[in-house]
Amino acid sequence: MKIFNTKQEIKSYLTTQKEEHKTIGFVPTMGALHQGHLSLVKKAKKKNDIVVVSIFVNPTQFDKKEDLTNYPKTIENDTQLLESISCDVLFFPSVEEIYDHHILSEKFDFDGLEHQMEGKFRPGHFDGVGTIVKTLFKIVAPNKAYFGQKDFQQLQIIKKMVRKNRLNVKIKGCPIFRENDGLAMSSRNTRLSEEQRAAAPFIYKVLKKVRKKFGPENIIELNEWVENQFKKHPFFKLEYFTIADEKSLETIKNRESNKKYRAFIAVFAGKIRLIDNIRL
Ligand code: PAF
Predict the structure, then answer these.
(1) Does residue 34 have an active-site annotation?
(2) Which residues share a beta bridge with 174?
(3) Is the pTM of this model over 0.85?
(4) How big is the CA angle at 148 (ends 161 and 66), to the nearest 5 degrees?
(5) How much of the chain, in percent, has pLDDT values that exceed 90?
């Protein structure tokens, strides 16, 4: 696997590859890689000649400094994992390389998608995500880019950004990868205590029950039911639960027959924030 730390080096390498008509698949990450990330890389490998993974803990998308400082950093293990699945290129730039000395976000208009769910609780988060993804797309210029559906709102926002900016890249959303007990894989899971980790499959259990209970007219009751599940819980505090339209991400009050919906949840285990979602 080739490892590049500068824009110049990776651009020059990829330019040569493109001149040879090779297609580029791209998996942007913040490192602390797990099987969910690796599943994206494997998918990208099947459909492209060269797969590039970036590892960059992007400061502008963290609304809390503490969360940025505590974000797990495991570059040696990440490199080994990527080597083990024959990833072609790792891009691992420094903050200065990406932002120079101006660690600031561009301001985006995602047609309202940014004001829903995560946007209500993490001010500036999606401007940060938009900024880094656009920057990385400019550097790597991939044919296809792969994102997990665990961050479903992020996925929809990136699709919107690509459409609005007419970027020449196909965005591929990939299914959520779960541990055997149902917990959605996340780099943050490694920060859970033993007790929190053991209890965490509860989140997906609740979502699965919601999927079973979801009917045409019971959305208010369902919301109350979920809130009650968490009120009683010794480890988890519910930040939000909502049933939303997959396209607009707007919370719904009534179910319509020709639309697709998802239930979205954000939960705190102590200071660690976990999100998950399920197709209804
Ligand atoms: O999902 C992530 O890991 C990050 O938000 C991303 C897309 C790599 C941008 O920093």
Answers:
(1) no
(2) 148
(3) yes
(4) 85
(5) 96
